[in-house]
Amino acid sequence: MSNTLAPLKGQANMPNYDEARANFSWKEVEKDFSWHKTGKVNMAYETIDRHAETWRKNKVALYYSDDDRDEKYTFQDMKFLSNQFGNVLRNIGIEKGERVFLFMPRSPELYISLIGTLKIGAIVGPLFEAFMEQAVRDRLENSDASVLITTSDLLPRVPYKELPHLKHIILADEGDAPDVDKDTTFHRYELEMSKASSDLDIEWVDREDGMILHYTSGSTGKPKGILHVHNAMLQQYQTAKWILDLKEDDIYWCTADPGWVTGTSYGIFGPWLNGTSNLIRGGRFSPENWYGTIEKYKVTVWLSAPTAFRKLMAIGDDATKDFDLNSLRHVLSVGEPLNAEVIHWGTKVYNLRIHDHWWMTETGGIIIANYPSMPMKPGSMGKPFPGIHAAILDNEGNELPPGQMGKLSVKSGWPSMLRNVWKNEERFNKYFPVKGFFESGDLASKDEDGYFWFEGRDDDVIQTSGERVGPFEVESKLVEHPSVAEAAVIGKPDPVRGELIKAFVALKDGYTESEELQEELRLFVKKGLAAHAAPREIEIRDFLPKTRSGKIMRRVLKAWDLDLPTGDLSTMEE
Ligand code: WT7
């Protein structure tokens, strides 16, 4: 193999890929959990309480830091606080299976609430704090959430009066609360916590019971509620052990927000299932902040996204010289393709390989990865996790030979696989067009050595700065504006963001193109949906290409925009 990077020095938790693959069994992994014998399962118990019952009770579970706060919580602290929060929910009558949503900035309270919710067997739904009203409404409406934990700052974006199922709102800060509403009761986090006992009988659930709902965007329709179950812990535990390579003395930092699946599977579950000290950093990204955080906490294992690495690369290597980054021993990247260029830069400035790996909201855990012990081919996502079969399929479901691009698919039945799309069985079934295989929607190829290479999305979903944006959501918002007749949104390759959002807009009669109007449209999406969903480029056009059935042909716009061949135009209207 030419152009490979040698494995890390030192002993990796997974010594040899081929051996691990040959001997792997999920049944063996089960033996690391007490439910193997007791039959009693709960993710919250396995992440927190079981460590609080051992010598790890005084080990730091959570280091939390932002511009105002700097705190630490041991596993024992987390056990008692999450018990209290579980009791807060029980005291207001919340039961197993109900949906409890979190809409708040990163803070210890967010993590305590999330674990506490799981302890009573309720299903947790974390939302990005950047969401605006429409995005919040869609998710709370679809999930019929009965409780929301939020802050007074974010409350104006919660249309609670129009959400009949939302019976309780818990405010985690001290800001103003509205007067009593006839259908919604407001509570204060601090006050309720102070009244709640720190003793709690955990709700033991079935491995297949619902645990977490992550909403994700597709190319059409409203966001989908991807349901994961407690059984996901098997995969999150073992992948964190072998891919994140977590060891007892590690200080682990995952930069992702829990509104995104990376921020839960590998920002909460993976590390805590392994009893690892987990650093959470609130606030905004800045290179000084980030390198300063690594230096201050002596971070050893760091997981981030290609956009972050590209930004750090863009500010120049000198920035690293002002900080001591020697504590780092393992660096990982996920969410979008990691350019080989960035990996080579990483080996220069960090003296470490950046380990790319692939998965998605629907897979609940890592599927393909570069392992610390494995030679790396920069630009490749790596190889499937032991115990998981990933394949490149053609349209009929046949496995393609090495070198050919096809649909990246996963043999169904891995432990953290999605179990449903909330209230949408039909959409769930669409993930399995070929019997026995989950279809990811990504295109990829596999080489002679078994390494997988990402080629692109099969549909129109946009991946911008590590966030997945459905063109449909942005288009829907744009056409709400009085000036907009039609809108089509595409992802355009961008060196820093991966893709940037570009909107094509046809105006209604009586409106004319202007800089101000473009700016207004941008703001309209920013305020109505989310800042990261606002189009960076807007092009006004007389008409948009459509199929005869009226579907806007995004791929045609994309081809025109990038000067590429348009492909089959047979379905396009005159
Ligand atoms: C989509 C999933 C990673 C979990 C959180 C994001 C893209 C993800 C890679 C990678 C190229 C990647 C895919 C995938 N993606 N990782 N290593 N290389 N593309 O989950 O929001 O559900 O997005 O992100 O297109 O389908 P998500």
TrEMBL record:
Q: Known Gene3D superfamilies for this protein? A: 3.30.300.30, N-terminal domain of ligase-like
Query: Would the keyword Ligase turn up in this protein's UniProt record?
Result: yes
Q: Which domain of life is it from?
A: Bacteria
Keyword annotations for this protein, in alphabetical order, are:
Acetylation, ATP-binding, Ligase, Nucleotide-binding
Q: Where does the AMP-binding enzyme C-terminal domain lie?
A: 473-551
Q: Where is the AMP-dependent synthetase/ligase domain?
A: 49-412
Q: Name one Pfam family in it.
A: AMP-binding_C
Q: What Enzyme Commission number(s) appear in the record? A: 6.2.1.1
In the record, which residues are listed under signal peptide? none
Read off the InterPro entries from this record: AMP-bd_C, AMP-bd_C_sf, AMP-binding_CS, AMP-dep_synth/lig_dom, ANL_N_sf
Q: Which PANTHER family match?
A: ACETYL-COENZYME A SYNTHETASE, ACETYL-COENZYME A SYNTHETASE 1
UniProt xrefs under NCBIfam families: PRK04319.1
- Put simply, this protein is called acetate--CoA ligase
